[in-house]
Amino acid sequence: MNTKRRIFLKGTLASSAVAVAVGAGLLSPRQVLAAWPKEAFEAKDIAASLKGVYNADMTTPSNDIEIKAPDIAENGAVVPVTVNANIKGIESISLFVEQNGTPLTAVFNLAPNALGTVSTRVKMGKTSNVVAVVKAGGTLYAGRKEVKVTIGGCGG
Amino acid sequence: MADSIKIRATLKGDVCTVKALIKHPMETGQRKDKKTGQVIPAHFIQEVVCTHNGKNVLTSAWGAAISANPYLSIEFSGAKKGDKVALAWVDNKGEKDSAETDIG
To answer: Which residues of A touch B76 (CB under 8 A)?
Structure first.
């Protein structure tokens, strides 16, 4: 447990140093690839991947995170999701699909001048909650929305 | 993978909205080829970076659960007309591409 934590801490320190280097235009994205949080993306549940991304397992439910996604998605392969977080000092937004084999979908690290709005499209294996975790001022906030996935497109 | 990115940046006040479409199969590595029964190897974008006049506004890590031909939209403030916005991606096979546009 402790060793894991150390390895993770080492990982974060290294990756932030890399981020600085990229900001200075010294590296191309290819060289940053080592910072891709493999364990978090391979984790089978949200708690484990939260640990991998943020080294934390507690999130605070928040009403300031709005997730725009269809109530019923007829095609689980392309589900449009927009996260709109009305929180000050957002550092990072990550997206999870609770019932997917590996829930972590994406981590977006935002610069201070970026607004808390991110849109993308995700794949969903079956009906599930879409969870957005927002990191702001060292605290993790979570918002969720259920999306029903109908296979065959009958809309039921 | 040249010309895989379509990017557009629009300005409203000093807030710039960046919209991008990337042409990429985003294979999860779990699908099987229907004819041969072989698993199609994973092939998906892992890193996406968006810059404004050379400064990062977004660095992101993606998993295979992003849809094929990914769409991405973000907003940031402090932009003005004629500024350069660029987007770059790298996938798990090391393929990469980038594109740049002027804010209009």
So the answer is: 111, 113-115
Chain A interface, mutation test: which of B22, B51, B67, most A Cβ atoms within 10 Å?
Answer: B67
Q: How many helices (H) and strands (E) does chain A have?
A: 4, 9
CB atoms within 10 A of CB A14: 12
Which residues, at least 6 apart from A142, have a Cβ–Cβ distance to it below 8 Å? A59, A60, A61, A62, A65, A131, A132, A133, A134
**Residue A4 exposed, middle or buried by CB count within 10 Å (0-12, 13-18, 19+):** exposed
**pLDDT by residue for chain B (104 residues), tens digit each?**
558 999 999 999 999 999 999 999 999 988 888 888 899 999 999 999 999 999 999 999 999 999 999 999 999 999 999 999 999 999 999 999 999 999 98
What is the pTM (predicted TM-score) of this model? Answer: 0.83
Do the Cβ atoms of B49 and A81 come closer than 8 Å? Answer: no
* Contact assessment for residue B24 and residue B11, using Cβ atoms and an 8 Å cutoff: no
Greatest distance between any 2 Cα atoms in chain B: 54
DSSP lists the bridge partners of residue A135 as A92, A140
For residue B82, is it left (φ>0), alpha (ψ between -120 and 50) or beta?
Answer: left
Contacts of A124 in chain B (CB under 8 A): 65
Euclidean distance between the first and final Cα of chain A, in Å? Answer: 45
Complex ipTM, two decimals?
Answer: 0.93
Neighboring chain B residues of A16 at a CB cutoff of 8 Å = none
CA distance B96 to B58: 17
